[in-house]
Amino acid sequence: MKQHTVFGAKIVGDHPRLRVARIIAMTHHERWDGSGYPYGLKGEGIPIEGRMITLADIYDALRNERVYKPAFDHAKTCRLISVGDGRVMPDHFDPNVLQAFKETASEFEEVYEKLKG
Length: 117
What we know:
Helix content: 55-70%
CATH architecture: Orthogonal Bundle
Order of helices and strands: HHHHH
Oligomer: single chain
Distance between the termini: 25 Å
CATH topology: Hypothetical protein af1432
CATH superfamily: Hypothetical protein af1432
Shape: globular
Number of strands: 0
Radius of gyration: 14 Å
């Protein structure tokens, strides 16, 4: 599982027009506090593209059912991202990205509800 970031980046390739996609594929599981993967990057060592998608990816994962958990509603998802539960913690996110999320959380809900199948 932890290699999917590396494999995804390899699949995207090195074309200059896909540079941002490659960065996102490689870094969307890195965490601000350095506890992520595949490289354990920390803070501003994580490209901003990855820092932003990390939060969006967690929001999506929490909102959707998984074999190991039910789907959570928007309010619970926001609480988990903002306050934490031991698995998801606010210090996993760039503080500026987390603040932007808090300021635009209603837009996340609106887009999610519009796009869900």
